[in-house]
Design brief:
Strand content: under 5%
Radius of gyration: 18 Å
Number of strands: 0
């Protein structure tokens, strides 16, 4: 990997290639089954929840630097998601675009003049 690495200049395909190479160099492909990868995603996501477990919910994350514990857990989730997409031969960009399109139909944008906060009721 070359430095500097940044989300605005690094493609998903590049990240998947890094992960493929990393797994191949360690002979880990045999362990990267859909079940194992899905379980690993859930486990790592739970570690993100652990980092904010006792917060009220509105306070900011204290340390959100790229080398922080939060960033490490986000990287873990992302790496397992990308490996799962590779193993299942799913294009994550195409899958996300299709999901956003479905969600736009299911949850149409609000008229900004009538927008209400979540949970607000008509009076």
């Amino acid at each position: 990997m070359e430095n500097p690495i940044h989300a605005s200049t690094t493609t998903l395909a590049e990240m998947q290639a890094w992960l493929d190479q990393f797994a191949a160099q360690r002979d880990w492909e045999k362990f990267h089954t859909p079940k194992n990868l899905a379980m690993s995603i859930a486990i790592e996501a739970a570690e993100i929840m652990e980092l904010v477990q006792w917060q009220e919910g509105s306070e900011p994350i204290e340390d959100s630097a790229n080398d922080s514990p939060m960033a490490e857990e986000i990287a873990d989730v992302l790496s397992y998601l990308l490996r799962l997409a590779t193993v299942l031969k799913i294009d994550p960009a195409q899958a996300l675009a299709l999901k956003i399109k479905k969600n736009a139909i299911k949850y149409p944008a609000l008229d900004p003049h009538r927008a209400k906060p979540p949970g607000a009721t008509e009076q």
